[in-house]
Design goal:
alpha/beta, Bacteriophage protein gp37, 7 helices, 239 residues, eight-stranded mixed β-sheet, binds iron/sulfur cluster, DUF5131
Length: 239
């Protein structure tokens, strides 16, 4: 699982210069990365322990087709066990491959905010935080401190109703949980977030209703598929 074309609707590829993590909040309960690690033990000899993969650092330079790349689908880039020097190397690769868009998603908002000013950002590095319930909206305040061109929220798995401050936020992704133990998502929670993005003029992406598997409930909300991307994405592909 070093890199792959992905079934995740809002990205094209994944890049995992680290793998492994540990759980930090209720959104982690049925962590997809952990489940995949357990399913393919030969691919993950270290199990779910945070592991660096320096041999993967150069991969994006070899991918010539411009892509949206989800960084660390199998980990969390701002995990405390990722050395700062290694983080700098990852950022250098991202800056030096401007034909790609990098989508960094974290639940480690404090670590991200602390390190953000020491890292060198370029326009192709987007950063987001997971917000599964109101209790974790403080992650958005940390996100606002990051000097990234695009800041986004991933409200997946959405576990409750959210009242969001969308100032400085460019994109909101919403999705329900999938898997046999999935926790159901109330349609009113989703409609309410959609309404908030319309008022704030923020792009909205509805990934899935969720269910026993990711495609079980489909992606239709109010008779349509919501695939909006941040406005800079359209500038990027029309260059
Ligand atoms: S932060 Fe992400 S990768 Fe880490 S345990 Fe939670 S859901 Fe899994």
């Amino acid at each position: 699982m070093s890199s792959t074309n992905t079934g995740i609707e809002w990205t094209d590829k994944t890049w995992n210069p680290t793998t492994g993590c540990n759980k930090v909040s209720p959104g982690c309960r049925h962590c997809y990365a952990e489940a995949l690690t357990e399913r393919f033990p030969k691919s993950f000899p270290q199990g779910f322990k945070l592991t660096l993969h320096p041999e993967r650092l150069e991969q994006p330079r070899k991918w010539r087709t411009p892509s949206r790349i989800f960084v660390n689908s199998m980990s969390d880039l701002f995990h405390k066990d990722v050395p700062f020097a290694y983080l700098q190397k990852i950022f250098a690769v991202m800056r030096e491959t401007p034909w790609h868009i990098y989508q960094v998603l974290t639940k480690r908002d404090k670590n991200m905010a602390e390190l953000a000013s020491e890292l060198e950002w370029s326009e192709n590095i987007w950063v987001g935080v997971s917000v599964e319930s109101q209790q974790y909206t403080h992650r958005i305040d940390a996100l606002r401190q990051v000097p990234a061109k695009v800041r986004f929220l991933s409200c997946e798995p959405l576990l409750g109703s959210l009242n969001l401050n969308l100032e400085g936020i460019d994109w909101v992704i919403v999705g329900g949980e999938s898997g046999y133990q999935h926790r159901s998502m109330n349609p009113e929670w989703v409609k309410n977030i959609l309404c908030q993005t319309r008022k704030a003029q923020v792009a909205f992406f509805f990934k899935q209703w969720g269910g026993h598997h990711s495609k079980a409930g489909g992606r239709i909300l109010d008779d349509k598929i919501w695939d909006e991307m941040p406005s800079v994405w359209y500038d990027h592909i029309n260059k």
